[in-house]
Amino acid sequence: MIGGEDRLEGAELLELLGEAEIGRGQAQVAAERGRKLGKLGDALGCRVMRARGERLQGSALASGTDARHHLDAAVSAFVSLGMPFEASRTRLLLAQALREPDPEVAEAEVRAALVAFENLGAKGDARAAAALLREMENTMPERTKDFLGLSQREVEILHLVAHGMSNKEIADRLTISKHTVHRHVSSVLSKLDLPSRAAAAAYAARHGIL
Question: Fold for domain 143-210?
């Protein structure tokens, strides 16, 4: 019977093979490899294997709703598994997938990854995240930098609220406390004179900032 460590090493090797396939332009092959890896993780009850499969699928798809779904799932899994480095690596992939459709959320993902890399002492990864953050800040539309009196962080919170995320989910995503999220949500509702999170989501949709 394959031991736990062997399973993890095997999952890592399969993901690396998939990444090489993406580099060779074989994205569909890599996506299928990721799907099989995720299914194998489910069958073996190995959450790390499942998370790596989700990440590989999202990386192969690169952008769009499906890519976001798989990368979101991988981030959540790595966070719950207590694997901050892998979660942060995945956040950078998610940021690239969201760069055009959701630039504020993409920036929030990069900021969270940068903080985690710095805390982990992963200097090379931190430099890469910082470089991506500077690039994104330079290309972000002006309206997203100061939207109707909201701070940049509050715009990020509004985006995540509009996508139906709870305070705990937002806190995990941005690597901040639930208390801080609650304070930001309250500030957003007050500044926009809105009665509820549902009203905030509707407001975001009306103003094209989903």
Answer: Arc Repressor Mutant, subunit A (1.10.10)
